[in-house]
Structure prediction request, 222 residues.
Amino acid sequence: MIPLHKNGAISVSVIKRLPRYYRFLADLKAAGVVRISSRELSDRMGLTASQIRQDLNCFGGFGQQGYGYNVEQLFHEIGLILGLDHTRKAILIGAGNLGRAIATHMSFESRGFQLIGIFDKKESLAGQMVRGFPVRHIDGLDEFCRENLPEVAILCIPRSEAAALADQLIKLGIKGFWNFSHYDLSVKYPDIPVENVHLGDSLMTLCYNVNQRIAAEEAGKK
Prediction:
């Protein structure tokens, strides 16, 4: 669900920039920077100062003319906007290489989530430890969800399995998905928050941009 601004819904593009603001502000805070102007922040982030002011004004504005932004305060406020002060229980389904990497290396707690269980359909994986959790067989999913009430599911499963599993999870109370399955859940479930992660799309976008850069360099040599 898109947060509401005083003049209506906030655009998806603004929402998608908020984590980037949060990350840059975390770095500034760690470096001991107390305040920063929109111009200085724009130089670091590759955005215009006007864009930054417009984005932040969607939430009421946090800067002071002639002073700029208090880094710690803005970091805190954006965290509240993102909902990071609420910890949501999450389960991960698919304990293959990708699922294990995400479970092991992602800092869920600093991003608003608590991972509470990992599942897979392979009998051979049941009981193996990942991030301190025993991998559970998928047959125990219903009982686990009824007892522990997770709100978010991370899907690291084949595309062919995603639709049926999503149906099951929504019936079990799952409110949102971080989806690596390549099945676009947001089409089937337009009212459920879904972040579809297509790593292949990102790689192909990089391929296009690299080819454009090389073509421009070659054209410049002629």
In short: The chain has nine helices and eleven strands. Residues 18 and 82 are 8 Å apart (CA to CA). The first strand starts at residue 4 and ends at 5. Confidence is low (pLDDT under 50) at residues 1-7.
